[in-house]
Write a structure and sequence with these properties.
Chain lengths: 310, 825
């Protein structure tokens, strides 16, 4: 069969496909999960992804930007999949979600460092589950005899004693915004952001009444409308620097966003360096390279002077 | 190039012409139509003719001996042979006369076979009259012929072979074995061509790469062969013995010298892309070789897909073969001959919807099937369907997809019958009773050694051969099986077969880029798009341009043994040039009369600007200078020169004017005077003759090397003398001209002349420019027929009246021009 290249674009999903006689490559973009941030477009090494700002209708909320992938440029490497903070893109080969760039260590994965110690959880508490803006947290209570407890109120106090709490996080879709951590009063959850950066809104530059950034922000609470000046302000504690706001901001200088550091699995890859340069800055990339260089230096020094430790 | 050529003494003391006319019977080819006796009597009456003789076959030894004898006995100093086309035997007779020390350029031919007996066979009387005119024209030119010294150019004894398929490889190997340095230029990453894509070869079923692989290695290792792969031909200048070739080496991003071909980079590369070598059935990594036996075994990075993770750089390590900064590199080489072996492509029938290719998953082409059944292919040699990955139990092969189709490719693609037979035998022998095989065919063409026996073998294996064209293929959506609708011609009824896989034997077509190569090398292509040979029978390997030879499928489709033989043939033809220290060039070049050149007094340079080869040098206040070795002898400059200061040797103004006058001496109003360029329209007219297309005997053709030579004065002179019609025949625009752009120069000239003549009262149809290729005998005959009808429709009286009105004006124009020139002198 000759090579078929297929692109289908529906309201729900964008799908790209290479169908070969013996192999099948597929890229699926779940439009419900996509927040219209700029990460994939910046990361794509083939510049195949374009972010299209959507027209805002009078009196309506701003719409999140639309992601489009160019079939002629896409090589199904899966870097967009690896870096999507919201797990909206999935690249599969023959139906399997095994990415060669990861397998062959030519691209790192984001480190979603989420530590949960449920031993401190109050039995009734559902704070984290309710706080998660993306509904990724699920709390389950398991009784001493191993049964999942559906209704807490039906249990006796005694039975309640033996309950074990389990917190499941849908990790690959988690943008690590830390809201759950802050909402938890017991310190059960510890989350490290994988994107570090800086965000600032200069309200004096914002157009009157504009809250486009707030409309598209996927993290509840990262941006808020201040009753004082009726302008949008940032709560940087929750912001995970995805940039969805920056994409829709109509005023060039009103919103400043930059990523300074990305927490990822260790890797030696030119493709990553370039992605980092585009996602953060040349400076950040060279910092990381320097750090890697000095680590290497330290390693080799250690190796050479290893005999001393004996 | 300057100064290397000795033109010798071109103007030897002119003696009183003594012309011998030899009239050939050509068996009955000429004598069967034309009254030879009458012709002989007529020839005797022509001025300066002192001897006339007829021969049964002038070109045979006794005939040639007659000529030599007559030259000696009758002190002939000019020879006219009235026989076949000069494109056929002019070289033969030139040798004959030079055997007895007559300068070969004192010889002229009258083409009374192709131009008379063969095309007017039902009208012997008129054919004889036309033959008389043709002889008269030849004698008129012969009287003015001058002896010329052949020019010698040095020969660079290196060759360029374009295309590293099986034909090109053989040509390169043979030349290298003869001791010549060969550059083998290959567009793709590896040599090997289509043969390296094949699983088995017919009719022996030996493994293709097992027999080709060692040959590829031999080519790669040969000290006399330099492979320039992954490179494009940019331009070629120069001429036989002295070609300058510009080549661009495309960046592989891998340094060839450092790459050991170990493949460690491939193993770490994370990116895959469809492998064109596998007909896109499978994939290769962004750094890879198209197939394991590639020669040269140098990896290539495809930057369209590479994400530049540099894992390959790490893997390559100390070898440091990878260089992402590599740039395209232009090189220039000098060679004496060029062999073109650019091969073919396989047609992908997306646009023939009845076959459902590209639409139905289980319809594939034969070349795709080849990659499926190949053990080293993407499926490891398993024939499986794309729809479900399962082995098909019924496979239908469909022949002549695109070929032998008047609306697509009218020609037979030569090898499809045989490779389909190979495929069915392979399938049957591999899966035995487990697979049912059907072949839909028009004719099975198995006409070479061992081929018919192979066909028998397929039949004995129980393959169902159904004679008939397929009308439609439809897919059953649930099973993805295919229903083939066809007509069984043997039974005379429609048939319907359900197959699990359909294999299309599609047409082979000229390689992509053939047009570009044709333009760069000045090659002509036939109606089918393949390169034209110089002569279909006698020069099947030579291209029309001297020093360029053709091998393999680029000249016409052929299978492996034939391509191999032609490769060797091309090598031996090239060696006839390379083995000589010097090559002789016809001295029909241009020369400038320094006393008449305007550039001495004014800034002119028209000739230099119009010369298609840049062979004329212009310096201020000095006469233009022709660089003889670069001059190809088209004569464009001669026609362009406003001062008539340039002469083309052997095609001088005086000689052509004499031909015009001879042609139009009697009844000019009934005649079409034609100027035909040697390579296309004259050859087209020859083809009309050899094909025995009849057309009215009204035309009187004059051969020029290129239509660019046709001076407007020739046209004016013809009308001044009362010609009924004038025709200029040229090679097709835009690229067919054998002198690059002579036809364009002629067109510009005549586009200016025609409206002027019309304004002066000439009926537009009386002056015509036509583009006739060497393959368009039909078109030529049609043009003559049409023009004759128009001429008769206009009527003799009208033509005479127009001419009477034109004559004084033309005479005035010519007179004024003569005066101007006298003043200058």
């Amino acid at each position: 069969m000759p090579l078929k290249t297929i692109k289908t674009d529906t309201a729900e999903a964008l799908t790209l496909e290479w169908v070969l006689h013996v192999k099948n490559y597929k890229l699926d973009l779940d439009k419900n999960l996509c927040v219209g941030c700029q990460i994939c477009a910046l990361a794509c090494p083939k510049e195949a992804i374009k972010i299209e700002k959507q027209q805002k209708k009078e009196g309506e909320k701003a719409k999140k930007a639309k992601v489009d992938v160019d079939l002629a440029k896409c090589n199904f490497c899966g870097i967009c999949d690896v870096l999507c903070p919201f797990g909206a893109i999935k690249v599969t080969v023959n139906g399997e979600h095994l990415l060669s760039v990861v397998e062959k260590e030519s691209f790192p994965q984001l480190v979603r460092d989420i530590q949960i110690d449920t031993s401190k959880c109050p039995i009734e508490c559902v704070e984290c589950e309710e706080a998660c803006p993306l509904d990724l947290i699920k709390i389950t209570r398991v009784s001493a005899d191993g049964k999942v407890v559906e209704n807490l109120e039906e249990l006796t106090e005694e039975q309640k004693e033996g309950i074990q709490i389990k917190i499941d996080v849908e990790k690959e879709r988690c943008p690590c915004c830390r809201i759950c951590e802050f909402k938890c009063s017991e310190g059960v959850i510890h989350v490290r952001k994988f994107f570090h950066g800086k965000i600032a809104i200069h309200p004096e530059k914002c157009p009157e009444g504009c809250m486009d950034c707030l409309d598209v922000c996927p993290i509840t609470g990262a941006l808020y409308l201040s009753p004082e000046d009726n302008k949008v302000h940032v709560n940087e504690v929750y912001c995970m620097y995805c940039g969805a706001c920056k994409v829709v901001c109509p005023e060039e200088e009103a919103l400043e966003l930059k990523r300074t550091k990305i927490i990822h699995t260790p890797v030696r890859s030119g493709a990553w360096n370039k992605a980092l340069e585009r996602l953060a800055s040349t400076l950040e990339m060279s910092k990381e390279l320097k750090a890697a260089g000095s680590r290497k230096l330290m390693d080799s020094v250690k190796k050479r002077l290893g005999w001393r430790e004996k | 190039m300057e100064g290397e050529i000795d033109m010798g003494e071109n103007k030897i003391k002119v003696e009183e012409p003594r012309i011998g006319v030899f009239i050939c019977h050509c068996g009955l080819n000429i004598a069967g139509v034309i009254d030879i006796k009458e012709l002989m009597e007529y020839a005797k009456t022509l001025p300066d003719v002192v001897f006339v003789k007829d021969n049964r076959y002038t070109c045979a030894d006794p005939g040639q001996e007659e000529i030599r004898k007559a030259i000696r006995e009758h002190k002939l100093n000019r020879v006219v042979v009235a026989a076949c086309s000069p494109r056929m035997h002019e070289p033969t007779f030139r040798r004959t006369v030079s055997d007895v020390d007559l300068n070969p350029f004192l010889f002229e031919m009258a083409n009374i076979r192709e131009f008379s007996s063969w095309c007017h066979s039902s009208n012997p009387k008129e054919a004889t009259e036309k033959a008389k005119d043709l002889i008269k024209m030849a004698v008129a030119k012969a009287r003015l012929l001058q002896p010329l010294q052949t020019i010698e150019v040095p020969v660079t004894n290196k060759a360029l072979v374009i295309g590293g398929g099986i034909a090109g490889m053989n040509a390169a190997l043979d030349l290298a074995e003869m001791g010549f340095k060969v550059y083998l230029l290959e567009k793709s990453e590896s040599i090997g061509g289509h043969m390296a894509q094949l699983d088995k070869t017919f009719p022996t079923l030996d493994c293709s790469i097992c027999i080709e692989g060692p040959k590829m290695v031999d080519v790669g290792r040969h000290p006399n062969i330099e492979i320039i792969s992954y490179a494009d031909l940019l331009s070629v200048s120069g001429f036989i013995g002295n070609f300058k070739v510009k080549i661009r080496k495309n960046p592989r991003y891998v340094i060839a010298e450092n790459c050991t071909g170990c493949g460690e980079c491939r193993d770490v590369c994370p990116i895959e892309y469809p492998n064109e070598w596998d007909m896109n059935l499978g994939v290769r990594t962004a750094i890879s070789v198209p197939f394991d036996q590639a020669v040269p075994l140098v990896y290539t990075i495809n930057k369209d897909y590479c994400i530049e993770c540099y894992k390959c750089v790490d893997a390559c390590g100390a070898r440091q073969a990878i260089d992402f900064e590599q740039q395209p590199e232009e090189i220039e080489i000098e060679v004496g001959t060029i062999i073109v072996a650019t091969g073919y492509d396989i047609y992908l029938p997306y646009d023939m919807s009845i076959y459902g290719y590209g639409k139905y998953t289980n319809v594939i082409t034969s070349l795709e099937f080849e990659r499926l059944i190949l053990a080293a292919g993407p499926t490891g040699g398993k024939v499986v369907r794309a729809s479900d990955g399962k082995k098909p139990h019924t496979v239908a092969f469909i022949q002549c997809v695109g070929s032998r189709n008047k609306n697509k490719y009218p020609y037979c693609s030569n090898f499809c019958c045989m490779y389909t037979l190979k495929h069915v035998v392979q399938l049957k022998e591999k899966y035995k009773e487990d697979v049912e095989v059907y072949v839909f065919y028009m004719d099975i063409r198995s006409n070479f050694k061992g081929y018919e026996e192979f066909y028998d073998r397929a039949r004995e294996l129980g393959v169902n051969f159904i004679r008939g064209r397929v009308s439609r293929i439809l897919e059953i959506p649930e099973t993805k099986n295919l229903i083939i609708h066809a007509e069984d011609m043997t039974l005379g009824q429609p048939v319907e077969i359900e197959a699990e896989m359909v294999v299309l034997a599609t047409a082979a077509i000229p390689k992509k880029g053939t047009e570009e190569i044709a333009r760069i090398l000045n090659l002509t292509r036939g109606a089918d798009g393949f390169f034209m040979e110089s002569h279909p029978k006698l020069k099947p390997i030579d291209a029309p341009t001297d020093g360029i030879f053709l091998a393999g499928a680029c000249q016409g489709l052929k299978d492996i043994p034939y391509s191999v033989s032609q490769g060797s043939g091309a090598a031996s033809r090239a060696a006839t040039v390379l083995s000589k220290p010097k090559w002789k060039i016809e001295p029909i070049v241009s020369m400038v009369d320094p006393n008449r050149c305007r550039n001495v007094t004014t800034k002119c340079g028209i000739c230099a600007e119009r010369c298609p080869y840049g062979a004329i040098k212009i310096e201020e206040k000095t006469p233009a200078q022709v660089i003889t070795a670069m001059c190809h002898g088209c004569g464009t400059c001669v026609a362009e020169c406003p001062a008539d200061a340039i002469t083309q040797m052997h095609f001088t103004d005086a000689q052509i004017m004499a031909q015009i006058r001879a042609a139009l001496e009697e009844n000019p109003e009934d005649k079409i005077l034609a100027f035909l360029c040697n390579w296309c329209s004259y050859a087209g007219a020859d083809l009309a003759g050899t094909s025995r297309f009849e057309y009215p005997p009204t035309i009187r053709p004059i051969r020029v090397m290129c239509s660019g030579r046709v001076d407007r004065d020739f046209v004016l002179e013809a009308f001044r003398l009362g010609a009924g019609m004038v025709l200029i025949g040229a090679c097709h625009l835009p690229y067919d001209c054998h002198y690059i752009s002579g036809n364009w120069k002629m067109k510009a000239r005549m586009d200016a002349l025609a409206p002027m003549l019309h304004k002066l009262g000439l009926s537009p149809e009386r002056f015509r420019v036509e583009y006739v290729s060497a393959a368009e005998g039909v078109k030529f005959a049609e043009i003559v027929r049409e023009m004759t009808e128009q001429m008769h429709a206009l009527g003799k009286e009208k033509i005479k009246a127009e001419n009477a009105k034109l004559r004084p004006i033309i005479e005035n124009m010519l007179k004024r021009k003569a005066m101007r020139q006298q003043q200058k002198a």
